[in-house]
Amino acid sequence: MKDEASGNDDGRSLHVGHLPTFAFGHRSPMWWGTLGLVAIEATVFALVIVAYFYLRGLADAWPLSGSLPPDLLWGTVNTVVLLLSMIPNEMARRAAERLDLRGVRTGLAWCLAFSLAFLAVRALEFTALNCAWDDDAYGSVVWMMMGLHTLHLITDTWDSAVLAVLMHTGPIDGKRFVDVSENAGYWYFVVGSWLPIYATVYFGARI
């Protein structure tokens, strides 16, 4: 320990004042937490998709009850919107890792706009599924997939909105920029998870 009177150091103390208080990527605990969350949620999506094809394999006809497959229009429009939404998310992520406050604010505003647009089109998607959740097993599993993904969209939209407000009102520190970076990383999972769900919901009943 350091002798305050003499100013000497006996060699047992560890000086950490020079270490950073935040970090991006795998050096951040938030990155590992997000990775664990993604692993859990990806497993849930995979199980629901497996359940869909298990039920399809047991059925004489699919969809059941003579239902039509979901209309392709709104689901395809939303897929395009979701893919385009990665652009502002990447802008926000890069700005955050540069500690560029203005760039983060702009990126988050665009992220929020794309999220709200996607949710608006998602409402139209539900009207074009051509089945209700309580019609039969087909309707239940389709609505389960769509509902789970919509829940993820809502939570990430809320996160983006909160971050957008905090980046204007403060307090602003390095850890807040890490939050923006991890929020973008989670959004990539939302986009990536939608692609197999889209293929299953919209083409699983057509093949």
TrEMBL record:
Residues 30-206 form the Heme-copper oxidase subunit III family profile domain. It comes from the Bacteria. It is a multi-pass membrane protein. One of its GO terms (cellular component) is plasma membrane. GO terms for biological process: aerobic electron transport chain. Gene3D superfamilies: Cytochrome c oxidase, subunit III, four-helix bundle. Coiled coil: none annotated. Its main location: membrane. GO terms for molecular function: cytochrome-c oxidase activity. It is found in: Cell membrane. Pfam families: COX3. SUPFAM superfamilies: Cytochrome c oxidase subunit III-like. Keywords: Cell membrane, Membrane, Transmembrane, Transmembrane helix. The chain crosses the membrane at residues 30-55, 67-87, 107-129, 186-205. PANTHER family: CYTOCHROME BO(3) UBIQUINOL OXIDASE SUBUNIT 3, CYTOCHROME C OXIDASE SUBUNIT III. Belongs to the cytochrome c oxidase subunit 3 family. This is Cytochrome C oxidase subunit III. It comes from Pseudoduganella lutea. The lineage of its organism: Bacteria, Pseudomonadati, Pseudomonadota, Betaproteobacteria, Burkholderiales.
